[in-house]
Structure formats: structure tokens, C-alpha cells
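quick one before i forget lol
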Amino acid sequence: MTKKEIIEQFSMIKGLGKAKAELLYTSGFDSLEKIQQSTVEKLTEIKGINEKLANDIKQQVNNKLKSINVKKPTKEIKKDSEKEKKPIKDINQTSKVIKKETEKEKQSLKEIDQTTKEEKYIVKKKPKLTKDQINKLKIRKQIKKRTPKFLREEWFRYKRIPNNWRRPDGITSKMRINLKYRPNKVRVGYRGPKEVRGLHPSGFEEVLIHNIAELKNIDQTKQAIRIGSKVGTKKRLEIEKKAENLEIRILNIGGRKND
């Protein structure tokens, strides 16, 4: 045992603090057995220990040593260990069986999940587009990837300026004059192809709707609806049912974006 462990063991005895425990250790008492073997007179030689305290210490040490279980002989331990080895084999076999069962259950659950996903997923309706329109939609997507985020002048300098776009103006504006290392401005060159301009990424033309009567004028093959934000839930559900019957795609089912 280390010094710290012995001092902690001594400090567990009533009437002994850390200071007195250290004095006991320095005076030659390395274990509880040495305290048991020593006399009361030797203990009283240490500072802060009276006769009463020495007698109490000896009684407590005797009780602790009695409470410690006596070790079994080696022969009995070997017999017990041999008996214990047998059930361990059975436990290992049962654990292997349990693992196999759990793996089978996991595989079955995965198969069930896949089947449910296949059943639940419905392919979204797509518009009827020409080959030229499909190609130009792809071109527009590529242009959008490389377009920078347009920010207004001196957005980095003041906290009050929001991260939005506003055309720079003023005689002293260096961004307006297009000087070096200034941020990009909105220009015609960043626009997409004219034929596909304003269309939804899916290719549909968006139409905002607020009631069921407006569904009559919609072309299912080219147009898709977006329900207005101020429409109530009752009217919204009616519009959704009618649109499903007419096979019209809704871009915000249940008030959420469905792009």
C-alpha cells in the first residue's frame, strides 16, 4: 500500500484526522496490524493522543481486523473455480444464440422498413417539357451554382446593415464605379435562359391560389399551384383534395415547402 492509502485508512478511525494519521505513519506504524501489536504507552508518545484515545484506537483496529474475512485454503479455491468454469461455457453458448436471434430480428426489421418506404413513397408529378426546355433548365442550374451571393455596399462595416442586396449609388461610391476588390454587383450576365426564366426547379410554372374556383383555369401539364399563406386550414384541406382529384401538383402541401 502507498502512503496516501495508509493515511486514508488511518483517518477512517474515529478520533484520528489526517494530521494525526500522518504522525502515526512517520512514527513507524505502516499498517493496522502494527497498531494492534503496539502498546498504549507507545501510542501516547505521539502528540495529540491521550490514553483514552489510544484505547479507542486499539478497540476500533481490533474490530476492523476481526471483520475482515479469513482467506480460504488453496484447495477449496481450486474446487470452486472448477465448478464455476462449467456454467461459463453454457453462458457463452446462450449468448451466441441470443446474438444470432438479434441479428435475424434486425434483418427482418430492415426488410419491413424498406417495404414500408417503397409503399409510402409516391413519385411527384412532372411537367411536360420539350428537350430544349430540359437542357436550358440544366444550364440554369449550373449558372445558379456559380453565381455569388450579392450583398449591399459596406455590409461588413456596420451591424445595422442587413445581408441583402441594394444597388449602390452616390458620387463617392467605389462599388458603383467597379473599382478593384469590391464585391460583385447584380448584372445581366448572371441571368438564366429566357425560356426557363421564372419557372420552378421542377419545371412547373407557379400559380398562387386562394380558393377552389381558381383551380379551373390551371393547366395540369405545365402549371403547379402554391396555396397562399393567409388561407385557413379548412379551406386549405378542401383545395388539397380538389387538386388531388384534378391531378394538380401542390408545391406547399400542409403549409410546407414541397420543392
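fyi The chain has nine helices and two strands.
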